Each structure stands twice: as C-alpha cells, then as structure tokens.
Amino acid sequence: MPGWRSQCRLVLLNSLTCGLEICVAAGITYVPPLLLEAGVEEQYMTMVLGIGPVLGLIFIPVIGSASDHCNSSYGRRRPFIWLLSLGVLLALLIIPHADLLAAYFTWGGRTLEVAFLILGVGLLDFCGQVCFTPLEALLSDLYRDEEDCNQAFAMFSFMVSLGGCVGYLLPALDWSRGLLSVYLGGQAECLFFMLILIFVISVLITMKVSEEPPCAGVAALEPAPLLEAGRCGIPRSCCYLLKCKLRLLKSGPLLCLLRTFWSMTPAIYRSYCHVPQVMRQLCVAQLCSWMAVMSFMLFYTDFVGEGLYEGVPSAAPGTASRQRYDDGIRMGSLGLFLQCATSTVFSLLMSRLVRHFGSRRVYLSSMVSFTISALVICMSKSVVLVTVMSALTGFAYATLQTLPYTLTCHYHKEMEVYMPKKKTKNLLKYGIVIKQDSITHLTPVAEEGGLAHKLGGNNGHAFFSQDGSDYYPPPQSQNGSSHKATGPEQDEPEGYEKRGVGLDFAILDSTFLLSQVFPTLFMGMIVQFTKSVTAYMASSAIFGIIAIYLANHIIFDQKDLKS
What InterPro entries does this protein's entry cite (predicted)? Predict the structure, then answer.
C-alpha cells in the first residue's frame, strides 16, 4: 500500500484500541468517586479496583494461548475480541444504572447498589484490559516484518494515548447542564451513554477493517467427508452442509476457549511460568515500570482532590469541602489528559527516537524522567507545577506501550538466538526415563536442517519438556503408529522455544494487570497508616527507581546476550 493508505488502515485497525482506552480511562477516573459516594470506604474502594486485574491474571494466559490455537472461520483473534467487547458493553450499561437495577429488588437497598457497581467495575476492568491481548496479537499476525511491526505498535501506542486523552477529558467536562444530560437523567448517565456510542462505533470499524486469513473455514469446506455420505440414506448435500455446520460450531470462540482451558491449561501455565530468559528479564522490568506508572495514574485524581485541594470526598454535596474535592477531581483529570497528550506526541516520535538513540536509551530516559516527575509531585504544593510534571509522565507511558511489544516481536523473529531450547536426553535405566538437560544454541543452518528428523525417543508417548514450556506429541510413522525408542539413549528435539506470540503478549499484559493489583490492594492501607495521600506519589517514585535498575538488564539486541 502507499504510505498514506497504510497509515489510514493502521488508524482504522486500531480504532477499537482507542475506544477501549477511552472507556477504561474514563472508568478509572469516574468510578472511584462513584464508589465513595455510594458509601464504600477508601480502603475497600482500592480493593474493588483490583478485582479486574486479579481475574485478568487468572484468565489472560488461557485466552492468549486459546487465540493462538483457535481455528474459527472468523479468524484466530477476532472471536475473542467480539466476546470481550460484549463484556465491556455490558459493564458500561450496568455502572450508571446500578441504583435503578437495585431498585428492582426491594430486599437489596444500598448494599445491592454497591454490589452492582462492583460487578460493573470488575467487568469493565477485566474485559477492557484483557481485550488488548488479542488486539496486540492481531497486529503481530498482520505485520510480520520488523519495520512494519514497529510502525504498527507505534500506531497502537498512539491510539492508546489518544484514547486516554479523550477518556480523561470526558469526565473533566461538566455534562450536567446539557440537554442530553437532562434527558438521560444526570452526569453519569450522559457520560456513559457517550462511552457506549464511541465504543460500538470503534468495534464495528476494527472488525470491518481487520482481515484475518480463515483457518477452520477452509478445512470445513473440504470435499473429503462427502465420500462417507449416502451410506445412511441421507442426501450427500444435506450431509455435507450438516458436517460443515458442526465443524464451524466446534471452532467457535467459546468452545475453543473451553477446550483449551480443559485440555491445555496445565501446559499453558507451565509455559506461562517457565518463560525464556530474555522474556523473564523484560517482564520483570516491565512489571516494576508499570507499577510505578499505575500507582500514579490510578490515584492521581484522588491525590489532587484530597492532597492539593484539601477536599473531602465523603462530605455532603454542596458543602465547601465537597466542592473543593470535585474541583480537584476535574484538575486531576486535566493532568491525566495532558499526560496522554504528551504520550500521543512521543508515540508518533517513537520510531525516530529508537533509530537515533536506540531502544535502551529511550527506555531508560523515559523511566528517569518519570521518577523525577513523581518526586517533584511529592514535594510540591503548586497545582501548576504538579500538572506540568504529570504531563511529562506521558513519555514513560508511550514507551511502555511500544518498546516491550516490538522487542517481543524481535525475539520471536530470531527465536534461535534469543530463545534457545534446552537439549533433553532420555536415558532408559531399569525401565525409568531419566532426563538430562543442556542449553543448545542453534545456528540458522542447523535449524534449516530439519529438526523433525530427531523426534524419536519418547517411547510413543506425548511428553512435555522439563521446563514445561513445550509439548511434543508422539511421532507418527507413515501407517499412523507411534515410533518406539530402541536405543538406550535418545535425543529429544533441539532448537528454540516454540511459543506462540499470543502467549508472550499475554505475559506482558499480565505484568500490566499485576501492576494494578498491588496498588489497589495495599495502597488504601498505606494511606490510612501514613494519614496522607502523598503516599500514592511516593510509592510511584520508589517503583520508578527500582524500574530504572531492572531496565539495565533487559536484552535489547544480540550484544546484550554476550554481556
């Protein structure tokens, strides 16, 4: 495609990314005040915000791996995008109408309203965050060349930042005086109606533009099953259509997810826990980096409202304390909006920055600038200075949305270099299989020599590698029977870790979700202990310092493997 058409297609392809971020960002900003107004204490409010990330940590490896193995006629990634988008839409309907839903049950009252709010918040956070994993894998499938992949994820980061801009700006505006707000019933109803409208449009655009190659659709239309038709008295055409429908149903996203969860969950979680060294170092640094950023983003509005403006969220509406808190929430939303605006600019410049300075310098400089900004925010009482520093944190946000994913694509493109596999030998002694491991680095010539010729030695049984990361089925002979090991010692397959990129993207996204679990579960208790909301920003600065140290151990290129 010409340059401008390619960029337009990338924008349309990432429209759902933008829509998701709008909904998640607006929810993060608007939901905490709703929970506090409903009577939830601050300690438990932060725990409620941790429900979605905890569920994501449990299910995201299954969803990522299931999308790697899905054989739906609609593609591998799109069925999961549809399902998770439906969950987001349901959450956007529940949150603003929690009081109306509770009113239908006379026995519930205020408690049931809080329960519906918690349900909506958890569903929005879970489905909204997990949906990014198949979207990232879809980009990786469609753009395999390294330069194209860099541009695709730079646009991904740009659309995330743009979505954050809109998402943080919408709650900062006063919608209560508009005609739409009067018609719908209030500020919250008007805001969430607009979120639903934006989200539905973005889903339809992305689903229309994305064109995954069909997997099961080709297999389902093969004429071979027709040879068996006619024996039971059923016309061949009817039998053919019936089998086609059955096969398409079997390849649906729900059944694909259930089959994966039932049959492959142990293998998935072994692969999930035993990651290659390069991915392990990247994920640890990514985790601390995201913990720094999310400790800032989740509680920045509350810090401004209570810390800088000295407002009280539990005060009665119309009082001076409550008015100061509301003004602080709007100013905090403005700060997060400026953060996303800065992130949008750096997303557009990210490819040029990497070409001129290298990935290592860009990553480290982004975390250094973030840590300095967090320290200034901790010590300053100036609203203007704090807002300017919050805008500067957008550099780190853009970097974390781009570089880890392009590095993962680079690792998968040269797996024999970055993900060498353990060479495993089976020693048969007294009828017991004993495994010996040694790391083997293959050259491209050895890889092209055909690793499939070394698939003997598992005694006709399927097995997992010792680190649990790979599954090897029993090798089949030409007549379909399994080979038997005849010698006392056999070599298992060598080469590199045969991992799906969807699973490794799921691991990266899990670091993002895990970075929200600690702040949401423990920040409330830390604030109650210190009696100051400044603890939010202090924790963010501490995590930033740790992230700078860990980022020095990331493998950015082959030179880092030798050091």
Answer: MFS, MFS_trans_sf
Using alpha carbons only, give the angle 379, 381, 384 rounded to the nearest 5 degrees: 115
Least confident of 251-255, 273-277, 330-334, 396-400: 251-255
Decide if pLDDT at 502 tops 80: no
DSSP assignment of 453-504 equals: GG---STT--EE-TTS--EEPPPB-TTSPBP---SSEEEPP-SB----HHHH
Instruction: Give how far Cα 217 sits from Cα of 226, 260, 285, Å.
Output: 16, 19, 41
Asked if residues 449 and 483 have their Cβ atoms less than 8 Å apart, the reply is no
Return the number of other C-beta atoms located less than 10 Å from residue 69's C-beta: 17
With vertex at residue 48, the alpha carbon angle to CA 337 and CA 398, rounded to the nearest 5 degrees, is 30
Whether 210 contacts 13, CB under 8 Å: yes
CA–CA distance, 501 with 506 (Å, rounded to integer): 8
Q: Is 557 in contact with 363 (CB distance < 8 Å)?
A: no
3-class SS string, 1-39:
CCHHHHHHHHHHHCHHHHHHHHHHHHHHHHHHHHHHHCC
Give percent above pLDDT 90 in the chain: 16
Query: Alpha carbon of 19 to those of 200, 372, 389: distances in Å?
Result: 8, 31, 26
Q: With helix as H, strand as E and coil as C, how does 339-359 read?
A: HHHHHHHHHHHHHHHHHHHCH
Higher pLDDT, 134 or 418: 134
Neighbouring C-beta atoms of residue 125, cutoff 10 Å: 28
Contact 88, 131 (CB under 8 A): yes
Among 32, 38, 34, CA closest to 524: 32
d(C-alpha 415, C-alpha 273), whole Å? 18
pLDDT band per the 50, 70, 90 thresholds, residue 488: very low
Predicted TM-score of the model (pTM): 0.66
Question: How many other CB atoms sit within 10 Å of the CB of residue 433?
Answer: 15
E strands within 131-200? none
Residue 151 contacts residue 78 (beta carbons within 8 Å): no
